[in-house]
Amino acid sequence: MTATTYLQSCAADDWQAATTHSFVYAVADGTMGRDKMAGYLQQDYLFVEGFVRLLASSVAQAPTLADAVPGAQFLGLICDQENTYFLRSFKALNVPQARHAAPQTQAFQQLMEDARQSGRYEIMLAVLVVAEWIYLDWAAPFEDCAEDLPFWLGEWINLHASPGFAGVVTYLRGQLDDVWETLDVGARADVTTTFAKAVALERAFFDAAWRGFPVHRHPG
């Protein structure tokens, strides 16, 4: 069993709840309401800055250039293709970017910042692996549904179900699997705690999104 498979097993209940959530099924079958998706995307977009900073910090901590390059390439994708998707979706859904984070968003933002400030590659990876692997896990089964959906649903699936994104997850997991072998018992416990907390916060975010985040509207 790889380290990341072990870590996933330690958070199995929350992982299963997040990746088979009613919210993701509604995205996949096209029954997701415009307002509910708008509120979700507004909150999810607030993660981008913190995620980019965390990913950039992990690239800086990577042990070799070969270890750093895939992460650097992924930074470019987030700042280009994914960022453009958000902006197009906000326009289509007739909402602005949100200015205020919901409590569930704030909690994950703080986790990312704590991981970045730790200066520890393994802690950064624990958060990054969860953030991306959960999305691959829920989106991959629905890849064939995407083309029949409005783009603000279908492209969200495709962004997280593509072979390129799967490669990113494989890269991040491989980095954490490798570094795990160098850690002592205390460091492994820290990674396990961080990983489990990240999974629990992802589940909480989906729960809140399914209830419906307040939608920020254009003034006037």
Give me the Rg, rounded.
Answer: 17 Å
Largest sheet entry: none
SSE run = HHHHHHHHHHH
Alpha carbon gap, first and last residue = 56 Å
Mean pLDDT: 95
Q: Total domains, how many? A: 1
CATH class: Mainly Alpha
Helix content: over 70%
**CATH architecture descriptor:** Up-down Bundle
Low-confidence stretches: none
Fraction of residues in β-strands = under 5%
What is the strand tally? 0
> Which structural class do the helices and strands define?
mainly alpha
Tally of contiguous helical segments: 11
- CATH topology: the name is Heme Oxygenase, Chain A
Instruction: Characterize the overall form.
Output: globular
By CATH, the superfamily comes out as Heme oxygenase-like
Describe this structure in words.
With 220 residues, this protein is an all-alpha fold. It has one domain: Heme oxygenase-like (Heme Oxygenase, Chain A), CATH 1.20.910. Helix content is 78%, strand content 0%. The longest helix is centred in the middle third of the chain and has 29 residues. The termini are far apart.
